[in-house]
Amino acid sequence: MTVEADILIKRFLQHIGTLIVLIGAYELGDVASVVIPLPATINGLFILLLVFAVYGKVPAFLNAVIPLYLGHMSMFFVPAIMAVWLFQQAVYDHWLALVLALVLTTIASMALVMWVSNTLLKPSPKTNSDPTDQSPQ
């Protein structure tokens, strides 16, 4: 086999592995939604987060492929845009409620992310790792 063929096979297997992980997380989230009253996609994200937290990092094959998928994320907004166009009279009728809901939930989610980040990412207390250092702590 040539080097190019090896690279193509490796990329193909990375994509297949990534799809298996993503579909598996979704399906596990679907099973978990019987017990946890959240959508399967959200449960799947929590399952992925838990697996990555236990593993300690995102696996290399996912790190190589996921940015390619995120580059095409905008196509997932097409159904939402079509729904707005289809129900534009309802949007006109309830524009204030929609704007308030969008603004308030955006502010609330940003505040929650800031709080969680500040809580989880606090610097650890300074420890003395140098045994020859005699300065008081």
Structure description:
The protein has 137 residues and is an all-alpha fold. The protein folds into two domains: 1-71, no CATH class; 75-120. The chain is built from six helices and no strands. The protein has helices spanning 3-32, 40-55, 60-70, 78-86, 88-93, 95-120. Helix 1 (3-32) crosses helix 2 (40-55) and helix 1 (3-32) packs across helix 3. The radius of gyration is 23 Å and the shape is extended. It starts with a helix and ends in a 17-residue tail after the last helix. The mean pLDDT is 87.
Could you give a short description of this structure?
With 137 residues, the chain is an all-alpha fold.
Structure summary, number of beta strands: 0
Query: Over all CA atoms, what is the radius of gyration?
Result: 23 Å
Overall number of structural domains: 2
> What order do the helices and strands follow?
HHHHHH
Shape: extended
Helical content (DSSP H or I, runs of 4+) = over 70%
Structural class: mainly alpha
Low-confidence stretches: none
Counted by DSSP, the helix tally is: 6
Tell me what portion of residues adopts beta-strand conformation: under 5%
Major sheet: none
Query: Termini distance?
Result: 61 Å
Mean pLDDT equals 87
